[in-house]
Amino acid sequence: MKLLFWNIKKKGLQLTDELKTLSKDVDILIISELTGSKKSLEKLNKTIQDVIDSVSKETGLTHIQGKENSWIHVWIKEKKDLNIELVEKYNNLKSPSDLTDIHVENDSEYFAQYLNRFERMIFLKINYKKLDFLLVPIHFPSRIYATVRKQKDIAVHFRKFIEKIESKFSLPSLIVGDFNMNPFEDGMIHHEGFHALPYQEMEESINFYETPYKTFYNPSWSKFGDHEIKKGVVQRKPAGSYYYESSRDLKYYWYVLDQVIMRKELIDKFQFDEFKYVRSIYKNDDLLKGNLIPNEDKYSDHLPLAFKLKN
Predict the structure, then answer these.
(1) Which neighbouring-strand residues pair with 110?
(2) N or C: the chain end with fewer CB closer than 10 Å?
(3) How many C-beta atoms surround the C-beta of residue 9 within 10 A?
(4) pLDDT tens readout for residues 21-43
(5) Is 60 exceeded by the pLDDT of residue 68?
């Protein structure tokens, strides 16, 4: 089973041909930031449904998730053995009011208007041959609007919500999307957050002061660095999925924001050799500028993330 996630920077109208090419052998296509605002579409005499229909027509895939208030849209390739059921969403109805009181000094409006405005996670129950798990596309709140500490607070709540749904269906989860954090940041690795660790031999849960905290495995750490070795030859590559030159004192330049994390029992289903940031659509490296930075003017500021699971 092949999956592809891409944050397309609200360019759903412009990138239908590119999505058609990228999704030729894809079973599940997950798009974040499909379009701009309703008002911006109205100026073009378009609706969000027009964009959805256009992508569906071009790709030949079936749209199963996403409306006007969704930052996550999902298309699937209909197959005889592929059973997908939307079982839960995280939206404004799921966000507790007490989040506005957590380390937020004078800006609780952020949570009321930004965190609650869009669907941030959806839960898809997947059954395909020997695969049986929860697929959780995510678009985590951005650092532009949230501090590191605030992101960690939100991650604590998201983690609890994920565990609640896992328990309800007795299934492990695989989460994919734009986490808006690097793998090493507090919200990703803290035991009260996603607790997503970079090694396969981890325990399914780790005790902190006699309290067990479930773990995720995060293979996305391997996406850092500007080179790789293929068949004994050193080759240059993008050093992450997103490039940004900030004015802050601490600059990373490259960020691994687009990630996939999974429970331990799904690791043996993950095909590491098929886990990659996509660099090309029509010709070599056409998603990149000459300096290997994502070509955001023509495409998006994020690179697509592709991976496969063994059936």
Answers:
(1) none
(2) C
(3) 18
(4) 999 999 999 999 999 878 888 88
(5) yes
3-state DSSP call for residue 198? coil
Length of the chain: 311
The helix (run of H) or strand (run of E) holding residue 40 is helix 38-42
Structure token pair of residue 131: 């695969």
- Residue 7 sits at the vertex; the CA angle it makes with 62 and 54, to the nearest 5 degrees, is 35
Q: How many H helices and E strands in the chain? A: 6, 19
Q: Are 31 and 4 in contact (CB under 8 A)?
A: no
If DSSP codes are grouped into helix, strand and coil, which group holds residue 297?
A: coil
User: Is 299 in contact with 288 (CB distance < 8 Å)?
Assistant: no
**Number of other CB atoms surrounding residue 216 within 10 Å:** 25
Second CATH level (architecture) for the domain 2-309: 4-Layer Sandwich (3.60)
> By C-alpha distance, which of 47, 49, 58 is closest to 15?
58
Could you tell me if 243 and 275 are in contact, meaning their C-beta atoms sit under 8 angstroms apart?
A: no
Q: Are 27 and 3 in contact (CB under 8 A)?
A: yes
Q: How far is CA 197 from the centre of its chain?
A: 17
